[in-house]
Amino acid sequence: MFGSRIIARRLAVVPRRWAHSHNPSTRPPLSSVTREDVEHFSKILPSSAVLSTLASETASQAELEPYNTDWIGRYHGKSTTVLKPQTTKQVSEIMRYCYERGIGVVPQGGNTGLVGGSVPLKDELVVNLGNMSKVRSFDPVSGALVADAGCVLEVLSEYIAPHGHIMPLDLGAKGSCMIGGNVATNAGGLRLLRYGSLHGSVLGLEVVLPDGTILDGLSTLRKDNTGYDLKQLFIGAEGTLGIITGVSILTPPAPRATNNVLLALPSFDNVLPLFKKARQQLSEILSAFEFVDRTAYNLAVKHGQGKAMSEEEAEGAECFILLETSGGDGKHDEEKLTALLEDLMGADEPLITTGVISQSPAQFASLWRLREGVTEAVSKEGKAYKYDISIPLASFKEVVDTTREHLRKLGLLREDAVKHVLGYGHVGDSNLHLNICAASYSPEIETALEPFVYELTASYNGSISAEHGLGAMKAHAIHYSKGGVAVDLMKKLKNVIDPKGIMNPGKVLE
Ligand code: FAD
Ligand code: MLT
Ligand code: ZN
Question: Which domain of life does this protein belong to (predicted)?
Fold first, then answer.
């Protein structure tokens, strides 16, 4: 019954191809980096900041491997040269030269992106921002933080913590990802429910444009309606319009008290009523409401991601919710949370079977680890096909089940092909992470999944990229979520800002 409804939906999906796209093939082909180019870069940068297999002994191919391979090990570039500038001026000089020579450039932060956007598709030059890691200023009254793009998110959190502030975003990759990469991907993460997206919290950007021009927009003003808000173009552009070198961002005051609780639910059907109830009863102190299905939970536990509840407690649960509160009065917050839990447990038909409330900072971190660690658990278990979709919350389970059933019918659900199909994500943002964990990457599995997953998502009027971006993985599929007029306008904008098409070629727009 379930399957037939989805087939009906799928028949209704007509891929929206656009009629008048700009044709990038009219551009001259990009140039490969040569030995002479490396010699030129060595005049701009100290020798330790130039890694190349072209100039003798600066780097071996093996040393370039981490810059050429993405986090999930699915995309492998062939770059011969990686540059690690320390200043905006150096980035500008590199770009001016690359623009003249027509060399393709891949901006790279922590290389934790999940859509193959941060590594070259061919032999483009990699400009890694890791050496640009200074905090430029922090205003403890307004909370405005101005930092180099290569500052690691967790380092920034630690920097502002003594001033009683937190970063407006948090994600599992916080120990490696960089603020420039976060802005370039418009990363969502675990705090979006509370603090909104980077389109709201970024106050200004400093960007080096493809021809080397520096766009200095590092404002710390909260309000500035003077003309077009250019910074918004670069937030989520995935390095296709320029290199972000500095970020000005509004950091909120740290909550005085935080609590979290892991809830076991007997049925997925309880997620929606639970979310509604939690929002009503906890109102302003609800700061996260994260979903982990049974398969994701089992994998996290199997691969040692945080201590959760005992096996007996988790037995019978179809899925789990990690709920967090953040507020200004610990006693008041605890009372509200306890009242909610009592209501949930005491109801005639309880929405939850059990809940574990953290009693110490270590337990608090451990519960979060279980949710944040799903990504790592999946990559330890096998090779991940990651789909990051926005769909109506009520359909989360339906989409996971439909995909699993589809793979089963094709005979692919077996230990040496697709090992697990799982779902987890951000309930508060209607953002499901549908993961297919396979024994290895194979064309057979990929063909089974695409365009199937994109069509399924489009049938719910969803987005094929809720928060990870399009990168190389989904550039060809943009039309499942955006109409022809929008894609055409994006191509025109790209052409105005990057007429030679040197910025992150093959990403976002084909
Ligand atoms: P990279 O991976 O290096 O680059 C990502 C993209 O941005 C590339 O297209 C690159 O070219 C571009 N880019 C990088 N730096 C710059 C720059 N300075 N200027 C211009 N372009 C640039 N994402 C979420 O949204 N929510 C999550 O909860 C989340 N959790 C994650 C958990 C784990 C364990 C992992 C591995 C990833 C997770 N991600 C999540 C993916 C997310 O996109 C990244 O973690 C992060 O935002 C990327 O930052 P980065 O510095 O690693 O960028
Ligand atoms: C998450 O929410 O855990 C991240 O977006 C990473 C992932 O999708 O695995
Ligand atoms: Zn996520």
Answer: Eukaryota
